[in-house]
Amino acid sequence: MKFFIDTASVKEIKDALQLGVLDGVTTNPTLVAKTGRGFKEVIMEICNIVNGPVSAEVVSLEAEGMIREGRLLAGWAPNIVVKIPILPEGLKAIKTLSQDNIKINTTLIFNPLQALMAAKAGATYVSPFLGRLDDVSSDGMNLVRDIKIILDNYGFNTQIIASSIRHPMHVVEAAKIGAHVATIPYSVIKSLVKHPLTDIGIKNFLTDWEKVPEKPF
Ligand code: E4P
């Protein structure tokens, strides 16, 4: 499973890179706005420090505008993935841009047919927002499961990015289902290796180590 970080914070990206498990980045307009920095400046900096796909989102709602913005974004760096919302206009833009070999991440997926449509149009990735479904008392993980079954049934190469991850169990469940990618906020990435028994074990080992004679280090 690939791990992307869901942030536009360069500091968080640099910290996550040091863990050695980061494969890419997803951003969205909200995450960029939180940085207080210019869109191009922040996306370019991220693309320069990350050796993997970086999703940057279009804001037009018409296919023509999405295509124009998508082409502009794709020209900024070779690792840009253009994020397009799943709308009828978005499908048109996905078709055109994917024919130009521009990689597309289809965003705001909340039902399996949206994912199937995006895959048929040529999307590289589909992003089911499972946490936002959980937020409204729906089973977000079931969406990821259904999309995986449907895309596998027909041999699509489109990859599933489990998105809107809220906690480590979302990552566990998405990995069990076989989602290709999880895009994870930094706060959750940090908690992925945490376990109270690990902390207690380390404490006890270090206490006992003090009793070992003639220590080499
Ligand atoms: C995915 O690409 C989105 O940026 C993201 O996962 C949205 O998550 P949120 O529901 O926490 O805003």
UniProtKB/TrEMBL annotation:
InterPro entries (alphabetical): Aldolase_TIM, TAL/FSA, Transaldolase_3B, Transaldolase_3B/F6P_aldolase, Transaldolase_AS, TSA/FSA_arc/bac
Role this protein plays: Transaldolase is important for the balance of metabolites in the pentose-phosphate pathway.
Keyword annotations: Cytoplasm, Pentose shunt, Schiff base, Transferase
Pfam families named in the record: TAL_FSA
SUPFAM superfamilies (alphabetical): Aldolase (SSF51569)
Gene Ontology CC terms, in alphabetical order: cytoplasm
Compartment(s) where it occurs, according to its Swiss-Prot or TrEMBL record: Cytoplasm
EC nos: 2.2.1.2
Annotated pathway: Carbohydrate degradation; pentose phosphate pathway; D-glyceraldehyde 3-phosphate and beta-D-fructose 6-phosphate from D-ribose 5-phosphate and D-xylulose 5-phosphate (non-oxidative stage): step 2/3
Name under which the protein is recorded: Probable transaldolase
Reaction it catalyzes: D-sedoheptulose 7-phosphate + D-glyceraldehyde 3-phosphate = D-erythrose 4-phosphate + beta-D-fructose 6-phosphate
Single Gene Ontology BP annotation: pentose-phosphate shunt
Residues annotated as catalytic: K83 (schiff-base intermediate with substrate)
Any one GO MF annotation of this record: aldehyde-lyase activity
HAMAP family: Transaldolase_3b
Similarity annotation: Belongs to the transaldolase family. Type 3B subfamily.
Main localization category: cytoplasm
